[in-house]
Design a protein that fits this description.
Strand order of the largest sheet: 1-2-3
Order of helices and strands: EHHEEHEEE
Largest sheet: 3 strands, mixed
Number of strands: 6
Shape: rod-shaped
CATH superfamily of one domain: YefM-like domain
CATH class of one domain: Alpha Beta
Helix content: 10-25%
């Protein structure tokens, strides 16, 4: 059964009523004895995180933090040419710029 309080009492004890509603109690605010508002807690937007849910499903290779081979490290050392217009993608693959419509051109290196 819901707890019914009048508007004056609700204004005077609003913080307390919020706490009771958060705890799951049904609170109804009435004006002149007629219910006008029901005070209810909002459901949590996301469930609490539980640590260890992915245990045993993920792995990291033993060589994860080893230095990259020279060929792959060169990809990150290349000077990056700014994108032209709206189509050229800032994706550098094996020393070439890739275009979404299929064309490829060599990247400029200094």
């Amino acid at each position: 059964m819901a707890t019914v309080v009048n508007v004056y009492e609700a204004k005077s004890h609003f913080s307390e009523l919020l706490g009771r509603a958060e705890a799951g109690e049904d609170i109804v605010i009435a004006r002149h004895g007629r219910p006008i508002v029901q005070l209810v807690a909002v459901a949590s937007r996301r469930p609490d995180r539980v640590l260890g849910q992915a245990a045993g499903r993920l792995w990291i290779a033993d060589d994860f933090d080893d230095p990259l081979p020279d060929e792959e490290a060169a990809w990150f050392d290349a000077s990056i040419e700014p994108a032209r217009g709206c189509c050229w993608t800032l994706m550098l693959l094996s020393g070439h710029w890739w275009h979404p419509h299929g064309s490829v051109k060599p990247a400029l290196r200094q």
